[in-house]
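To assess whether the prediction recovers the assembly geometry, we first specified each molecular entity separately, as shown.
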Amino acid sequence: MKLLFIADIMGKPGRQAVQHHLPQLVGEQKLDIVIANCENSAGGTGFTAKIAGQLFNLGIHLLTGGNHSFDNKDGAAYLAATDRVLRPHNFPAGNPGSGRGIIPLPDGGEMLVINLQGRVFMLPIDCPFQTADTLLAEWGDRGPVIVDMHAEASSEKIALARHLDGRVTAIFGTHTHVQTADAQVLPGGTALISDAGMTGPHGGVIGMETEFVVHRFRYQTLRRFQVSKDDIRLQGALLEFDDDTGQALSIEAIDLPLAL
Ligand SMILES: [Fe+2]
Ligand SMILES: [Fe+2]
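The predicted structure of the complete assembly is given in tokenized form:
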């Protein structure tokens, strides 16, 4: 089976890149499943129910999130009403939504999707390793498992991949918005890319206009960020896996410019 993971969709430019590329990719690559991270899809911070609906209509089966999942009020409320938009599961209990989702597979089986968040240079939430172990114990061997590990540190993402090697089909790292050159299948059969990148404008600073971010770093005072418009790309990774064993066969990073 073939799965496309689309990295953090950033604002309107990111949504345009998905709209432009996804229908063609589904046909050309014979994609069975499409998963995307939507934490930045509404103006760079958070998502809305309307945007989630538009992304589902483009062929995305399930959306994941991260530290920005709760930023938009509408999106945060929608998390409680849908099982197709995840947020990191290891946030404290009492937050809306869940980081555990199920996608029905074309052959009648089911796929588990787990969304986690790291703790290095991030909020001190529950342990992503223990959370993954608990969710996997509940799932058993019902079918393939995909993990979106939303984290700052490559080391934490690679350590989680090593910890889960042989127990999940793939781990897609997200959050840094910078694609890593380490897509690989680990010895136990788990595919890894420590960061799938960002779907949106690459001309500024990780998706935001240069001027505002440079101001913040130089003067240490807050400036409202604005989503950049330059060098729009769809980034992510293509995964091929054996749906009987749940083992990954190959993983390849993708980086497609939006031809204007
Ligand atoms: Fe992001
Ligand atoms: Fe993030």
